[in-house]
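User: Hello! I'm new to structural biology and keep hearing that structure can be predicted from sequence alone. Could you demonstrate with Flippase? Please show me the input and the output so I can see what each looks like.

Assistant: Of course. The first part below is the input, the amino acid sequence of Flippase. The second part is the output, the predicted structure written as tokens.
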Amino acid sequence: MVGGRDMAAAQSYAIRDKHSAPTKRNHTRIWKNSVLTGSMLINVSIYILIARSLGPHVFGSYLFAQWLASVTIPMLGTGMSTLASRQIAETQSRESPRLMAGIFYFLWYRQHRSILWYCLAYLLLSFVLTHIFHDFSPGLLLLSCLATLPLLLSSVAGITLRSLRRSDLLIMLNLFGHLLTLLFILISTQINEEPVESFILAFTLSHTITLVLAVICVVSLLPLEQALAPGIFLKERLIHNMHLSRLHFALDAIVWQRSELLLLAFWHNSEVLGFYALSAIISTRIIGLAPALFSQWIFPLVIRYLPRHRYLNQYDAFVKTSCYIIFLAVPICTVMILLCPHILALFFGSAYLPMVKPLRILLIAAVFGSIATVGLTHMASQEQHDMQHIQRIQQEFNLGVACLKIVLALPLVLLWGMVGAAIASTLAQIFSAVISILLCKKLLMRHEKLL
């Protein structure tokens, strides 16, 4: 359950890969993109169904528990962040099948240790938060943690399948998981009037079944019975990739992962939490929409029908791709800002209309977030030495942005509730996105001068 820039960056990695991909196998590409689009629509349908079934008050408690259960996963879990899983998969893909099987076992057992720490941390946290937040249910948090546990192990299977270049299996598993969740959610709606616990257990069951299928795929593709244990130097590389800067994830959680929900939970009720959390989820999905449309649909068509269309260098690719994303993100967010009252009333019901103001404010930041994914993609593709230098500079700037958000959020949330939270989050995200864009521009210009 990683949200924010991780998810948007993951969707936009394909932008770089498409530059060197051949134009053949168009049917396969269309099939994969159609399945991804279908998975996204099913996921949206699940949220709509839950929101309409629970109502704003209970839905707010559910989203807050879900957010608390997932926000620390990139720091506690093995390879749960996009960048870490990508680097581990690249390391694993360079080894022989028997050694890849050994790496799978190594990651699998380390993830069990992470799960133990995760469970202990949240058992303590559930009791502590009961005394801090007046409208908090520790039972919902513990159930949400239970639903998250299969995802921790699924990440290991996902890394291994990615290292085997079996993106087709990952796509099908993702679609199957969403379909299964939708089925269980529909069954849960028949249990009682407010089946929030049943919804969480539905997620748990679907995640567990999907995990079993993912492990079966790994077992069929790798010689696990002949696995070779990775050597000490390979283990060091893997551990280094697992434990990328925790400070980086903490700052990302403050700026992009809805950390202002803590202040809203302290000063306001669950209904306000539900309105704001749903607004943040929608804006996060919009951030990834323009990069996904460009990388999965528009750019392949450009390559096919304009074969002479080529980028001169990385800087030229960065500038032109950013322009494409601007031309997509601005109209999408403008339409959403204008029509969001009608869209919310149609899909979620009139009870959710109070979230129009925070949603419109957050959609402004979504434009900048979409554009910033291009820079994040290019920076993630740099050499290891450059990556460490970039991360160090990003941390220094993001530390300032995180402090700015905290300073703004405290009075704004206290005075204006979810609207104040949206203003503080939007300003922080715009600053963070602009910094990422400028850093990428500076890095690419420096590389061009050295060539």
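User: So the tokens describe the shape?

Assistant: Right, they're a compact way of writing down the 3D structure. Reading them back into a model, for example: The two ends are 40 Å apart (CA to CA).
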